[in-house]
Specification:
TIM Barrel; 437 residues; binds zinc ion; single chain; globular; 16 strands; 14 helices; Urease, subunit C, domain 1; four-stranded parallel sheet; alpha/beta
Amino acid sequence: MSTILIKNVNILTMNKDKDIIEKGVVFIKDEKIADVGNEALLDRYSPDIIIDGEDGILIPGMVNTHTHVSMTPFRSLGDDIPDRLKKYIFPLEKMLVDKELVKVGAKYGIVEMLLAGVTTFVDMYYFEDEVAKVAKKLGIRGVLGETIVNFVAPDAKEPYEGLEYSKWFIEKWKDDHLIIPGVAPHAPYTNDTIHLQKAMDLAKKYDIPMIMHVAEMDYEYRQYKEEYNLTPVQYLDHIGVLNKNLIAAHLVHVNDEDLELLKKKEVGIAHNVGANAKGAKGVCPAAKMYHKDMRIGLGTDGPMSGNTLDIITQMGLVGKIHKLFNKDRSLLPASEIVEMATIGGAKAIHLEKEIGSIEVGKKADLVIMETQSINMQPIYDYYATLVYSANTSNVDTVMVDGKILVENKKLKYVDVMEITKDLKNIQGKILEIVKKL
Ligand SMILES: [Zn+2]
């Protein structure tokens, strides 16, 4: 493994004190950050590779805490249809989703994330082994779970077959250094109590994440109120499923009591503000969660829901939507939003000891944002620039585990033209089916 030195960057360490090092230097050895400091470090090392950051901003790789990458081929389809999940997405998936679609969608989606500075993503879908294989090949870190539902699914002839698949999938990937397998019941309303408990038993047995949509839908909230006189979060606690293995996506319909429970049980939170806004789901109390020091990170949700898979777009939306919703301009300053995008995301998936900040001993998952482009100047506050001025085209260099995957805004090991061709082929099939719907 070669050693790499990054110089001439403004480092947002995202450590506990949010230290910023201007004209900073990072030395990388054996996949990890071996030293972080100022220009004095330049004389200390003789690295194999030197990266000149050209006064860019160096940040920890961003974490997309919730998505379904393989839905990329469906992006922009039926965007404005009401009750789209049950009336549109589920039937479409039943007819179209196979291993090939999952593989092609994963490739395209992961490429999009890497080019946008996402170095870790949390995913749940069908044929998740295909996603894992693609992620591994492309070099991105993935927390991946096979979807479990109470109906016949694209890769399940019987309801809940996803649970058996999960056992096989977990065994296959449990010792991988890039892929963390999980178990992923779709939601409380698409899984009965026994299967939710079985899924959590599996998560506890292997000490892996259980990924699930929680309290996203208004009907979900009403259903649990009527049946149990509990909120969805209280119900999950009641059946023993609320604990630190859970990564809960959305949490739109939650009350203060729920927040206390989620904090106490150390549940990871994937906040998908863009997808929630577009789907008219409501606003998750993310600012309250942040101020309670809960484990909250940002997610995009699937590309049918949020349309983009990058976290930079989400950061701007988080600021704007929460300020507007709470009528408070000072709420969630930019540094707190960058925190959610990086170390917050790492905390949400319980990987904060390994990723999420630029500190000695952590994995070298790093992103250089260039500052030469017209939209990036002037800079008075690095965080504000990232949250409100930057876009994905400013991502210059991306590294996962000390391996440079994106250089000068281009993927080093991927032929994007070929991946796009595969996606177009799938799009042709989708169009044929949609015409019959
Ligand atoms: Zn989702």
